[in-house]
Specification:
The chain is built from 4 helices and 8 strands. It has 135 residues and is an alpha+beta fold. It has a single domain, classed as Nuclear Transport Factor 2, Chain: A (Roll), CATH 3.10.450. Strands 1, 2, 3, 4, 5, 6, 7 and 8 form an 8-stranded mixed β-sheet that branches. It is globular, with a radius of gyration of 15 Å. The C terminus is likely disordered.
Length: 135
């Protein structure tokens, strides 16, 4: 499998794990020292390392049980080197109450053994206030 296709497969696996609310499986897509900058609204909360990622996803999946994510497109992979790549794509988060918010994610991947893992993630999702139509 080509590197680009392997990265697309990892992003789809991540989405499926996220939709199951499986914290351990979700965080298995990250390197041990990964960084994630939360982009819901303008919060910018940052998680560093697997323990902080697990705690953040545990809170999310507990507070919003049943939350779902879908990609609005396949996204785009740009190879930076044989062991680093950037993937970006558009997504939609569907809350348990049926409301949704669209966004965009940029992730840096590193090839670790036979897998492409997320080194850094920057998901950006519009806050409910930002999705309210202007009067």
């Amino acid at each position: 499998m080509k590197n680009e296709e392997a990265i697309y497969a990892e992003t789809e696996g991540f989405r499926q794990a996220w939709n199951k609310g499986d914290v351990k499986l979700v965080t298995s897509f990250f390197t041990d020292n990964a960084i994630r900058v939360d982009g819901v609204g303008a919060s910018g909360a940052t998680q560093r390392g697997r323990a902080e990622l697990e705690a953040a996803y545990k809170r999310l999946f507990s507070d919003m049980a049943g939350i779902q994510m879908k990609y609005l497109d396949k996204g785009e992979v740009r190879m930076l080197s044989p062991e680093f790549a950037v993937w970006q794509g558009n997504l939609e988060i569907i809350r348990p109450d049926g409301t949704s918010a669209k966004g965009h994610v940029v992730e840096i991947f590193k090839k670790v053994n036979d897998r492409w893992l997320i080194v850094e993630a920057h998901p950006k999702v519009a806050s409910p206030l930002a999705t309210t139509p202007a009067k």
